[in-house]
Design brief:
Structural class: mainly alpha
Shape: globular
Number of strands: 0
Low-confidence stretches: none
Helix content: over 70%
Strand content: under 5%
Radius of gyration: 19 Å
Largest sheet: none
Length: about 230
């Protein structure tokens, strides 16, 4: 897994992908930071973290679109499948490389907190809870994007497919609002990504929400491994 991780992380920074991803994320994060904190003269960054949810929905597909689709297009996936590396090592190596780049991107929010601390008192507990929520959200969404990328050799299709999948997950709350059957409504609410994320932005640390995001990441990475297991024996 280590070799795959280093190769993929190096590939991000040897191309323009990492720099474009970081630049766009920093641009939006800076804009929301200015609008919700600096312009309002407040040390509360919950507005910025809340707004970053949609930024993540748009940017994660760009981050994950080529992780496997490029391998499939260039037929280098066969080399991976026959290499002395486990399928879980291949999938997790790519997954953690994307997660590392994502973590580098969201770390700027901690810098924003440090800046605000020079002008007033900041609640670092709430700030770290928000950071954790943003990290867990990305960890779950990257696993979804990785699975979509493993299903097609076209990067554009992978990006669009991931975006649609993430938007559907985001829209669960909207769908739940139109469902009149109580049991179905409760199930949809329990699967809500945004509601769980919003709890963190309000300063509520909810362990079941942490386990929910981790479970999503585990399930989708497992499904990606299964896709390549079927391909290996096909």
């Amino acid at each position: 897994m280590g070799a795959i991780y280093r190769r993929e992380l190096g590939a991000f920074f040897s191309s323009s992908m990492a720099y474009i991803f970081l630049a766009v994320f920093y641009l939006f994060a800076g804009w929301f930071f200015y609008g919700s904190s600096l312009a309002g003269a407040t040390t509360d960054m919950s507005g910025m973290f809340s707004s970053l949810f949609m930024v993540v929905v748009f940017l994660i597909p760009i981050l994950t679109m080529k992780l496997f689709s490029e391998e499939l297009k260039q037929k280098t996936d066969q080399g991976l499948l026959t290499a002395p590396v486990s399928l879980s090592g291949i999938v997790l190596g790519k997954y953690f490389a994307a997660l590392t780049l994502y973590t580098i991107a969201i770390s700027i929010t901690l810098l924003f907190g440090l800046i605000l601390s020079f002008f007033g008192t900041i609640s670092w507990g709430i700030c770290f809870a928000n950071f954790l929520a943003l990290f867990l959200l990305g960890a779950a969404f990257i696993s979804v994007g990785l699975l979509v990328s493993a299903l097609t050799e076209n990067q554009i299709v992978a990006a669009v497919g991931s975006f649609v999948a993430l938007m559907l997950l985001y829209m669960i709350d909207v769908v739940a609002g139109y469902v009149n059957v109580e049991i179905i409504q409760k199930i949809l609410t329990a699967l809500s990504f945004y509601t769980r994320y919003y709890e963190f932005t309000c300063g509520l640390f909810n362990l079941p929400s942490v386990l929910f995001y981790i479970s999503v990441a585990v399930i989708f990475n497992f499904l990606t491994i299964r896709v390549f297991e079927r391909r290996r024996w096909a």
